[in-house]
Design brief:
alpha+beta; Ribosomal Protein S8, Chain: A, domain 1; Wheat Germ Agglutinin (Isolectin 2), domain 1; 3-stranded antiparallel sheet; 14 strands; 17% strand
């Protein structure tokens, strides 16, 4: 059974771990907050679950502890940075804050980042944006990663290429964070670790046969694109679009030989929009709220209502801040050795 932990204590615990491997207090706190936000909204494969790998990258030098991103281009309403393997959660948070600073003047700000160490859960960056009344679009790709096959193809071509979106809409935001693969790699790895099959045939083995066995992926197979075996051409097209936005606009990716050694480094595309640049905020909210209400009132197939993107995650965030964060059981198991190694007391469950 999953245990609950106080959100502030989890934040302090993760921040202390990052400080012990050489990050400043400010950067450690930013890192911890991003991972915590993911778990608060229920994105358990890319929240505190990713702390251990980030600690390892910082210790072995795959992530830079110090320094700033290099500015490659800046026109005010758009900018491009080279992170040169700065920790992803920290550098992307800086980009979001920079965009928010510029938004009152620009109305819309777009940014790309190349060679950012893994940025984890995209949705985790969006609460401060949507709480200010803005719209956000965020996506990333991984130049060195080939895990997702194309429709009709066997070889893995794309990375998972997640995309997150948030817009204010009344009681809760319209918010989602989805990958362009039928299932995320984190869920495949979790199933492999726990010795169980996937809920459906989401994979191809290295001969192109459909499979629900995580071992098929581990042994040179691929994950199907969104749309699955029948309509995967849609997911493959969207994957290509997102790689253009993140890699091509950023000017670095699959076309560069050196990118093949970048491991987990992400190419990032971020866009934040102020609806007031187009008209009154009330007009915008009237439309987004009506959309969510239409969704909520639609007839459902079973006992549960139709699922509106963002409704469940936003409610979970509020509930877990008040009642404690329910961590997936393996997360604290993975962090316990790091707590012992770095001499940081484990947080006590509620």
């Amino acid at each position: 059974m999953s245990k609950r932990y106080d959100a502030d204590e989890l934040q302090q615990f993760a921040a202390e771990l990052f400080k012990r491997v050489g990050l400043t207090g400010e950067r450690a706190s930013v890192m911890a907050n991003v991972f915590l936000q993911a778990d608060l909204m229920g994105f358990t494969t890319h929240g505190l679950n990713r702390v251990a790998s980030n600690l390892r990258w910082l210790l072995n030098g795959e992530s830079r502890r110090e320094g700033e991103p290099r500015v490659l281009a800046d026109r005010g309403n758009c900018f491009n940075w080279d992170a040169d393997f700065l920790p992803g959660p920290w550098v992307l948070t800086q980009a979001v804050e920079q965009a928010l600073e510029r938004l009152p003047e620009q109305g819309m700000v777009t940014a790309t980042i190349r060679r950012s160490q893994h940025i984890a859960c995209l949705a985790a960056y969006l609460p401060p944006v949507v709480e200010k009344g803005y719209v956000a679009l965020l996506t990333c790709s991984t130049p060195s990663e080939n895990t997702v096959s194309a429709q009709g193809g066997i070889d893995p071509l794309f990375s998972a290429n997640p995309i997150a979106f948030a817009a204010p809409a009344g009681d809760y935001p319209l918010l989602f964070d989805i990958s362009m693969s039928v299932t995320a790699g984190g869920y495949v790895s979790r199933a492999q670790r726990e010795g169980r099959k996937l809920p459906g045939e989401y994979l191809k083995d290295n001969e192109g046969n459909l499979s629900d066995d995580p071992a098929a992926f581990e042994n040179g197979g691929s994950i199907l694109p969104v749309g699955g075996a029948d309509h995967g051409y849609k997911g493959a097209a969207l994957s290509a679009m997102l790689e253009v936005l993140s890699m091509a606009l950023g000017g670095y990716g699959r076309g560069d030989e050196e990118s093949k050694g970048d491991d987990e480094a992400n190419s990032v595309f971020l866009q934040i929009i102020d609806p007031r640049a187009f008209g009154p905020q009330a007009d915008f909210l009237r439309q987004t709220t009506a959309l969510c209400h239409l969704w909520e009132k639609s007839r459902s197939e079973g006992d549960s209502p139709a699922r509106v993107p963002g409704q469940r995650a936003w409610a979970a965030r509020a509930r877990q801040l008040e009642e404690g964060v329910e961590l997936y059981p393996s997360i604290m198991q993975d962090l316990e050795p790091w707590a012992e190694k770095l001499n940081v007391p484990l947080p006590k469950p509620l």
